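Lecture notes, continued. The same structure-token format from the folding unit now serves as the input rather than the output. Read the line below as a description of shape only.
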């Protein structure tokens, strides 16, 4: 167990063979709402959205997805999901996944948006630490629980060439 705690996961393009594991994690992470199914994840990949996985010893321990629309300077990105196995939360896995998504958004010079439960203080703090700000509220956004969500926004990072 000690080796697992000190080994950093690899963030790689999500493998289609891991979609079942994503759906399993969704059931654990979001039981009071509408967890995504295997077909929902497959549809995201089929639509060409950017998905990454966090792998530890070849096992998927987290996943994240991003959609990008438009072109610079008006491109927008939306974080569709970030999920981390509860056994690996609090170890920087979510941050690594978020950084991978933001790197992709920044490559496209996209302003990035996301929704987060208003009661998820840890996630809100992580997003704020990565340059997001709360810009709105969506009442009863999560179903069937009826939980509210903050809408958060982050501008694209300045590139060195932008000078």
């Amino acid at each position: 167990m000690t080796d697992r705690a000190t080994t950093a996961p690899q963030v790689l393009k999500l493998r289609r063979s891991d979609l079942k594991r994503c759906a399993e994690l969704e059931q654990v992470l979001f039981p009071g709402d509408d967890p995504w199914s295997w077909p929902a994840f497959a549809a995201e990949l089929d639509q060409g959205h950017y998905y990454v996985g966090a792998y530890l010893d070849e096992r998927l321990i987290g996943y994240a997805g991003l959609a990008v629309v438009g072109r610079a300077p008006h491109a927008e990105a939306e974080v569709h999901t970030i999920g981390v196995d509860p056994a690996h939360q609090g170890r920087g896995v979510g941050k690594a996944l978020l950084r991978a998504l933001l790197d992709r958004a920044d490559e496209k010079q996209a302003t990035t948006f996301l929704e987060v439960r208003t009661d998820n203080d840890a996630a809100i703090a992580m997003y704020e630490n990565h340059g997001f700000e709360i810009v709105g509220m969506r009442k009863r956004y999560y179903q069937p629980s009826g939980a509210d969500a903050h809408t958060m926004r982050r501008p694209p990072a300045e590139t060195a060439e932008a000078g």
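Point for the exam: The chain is about 30% helix and 30% strand.
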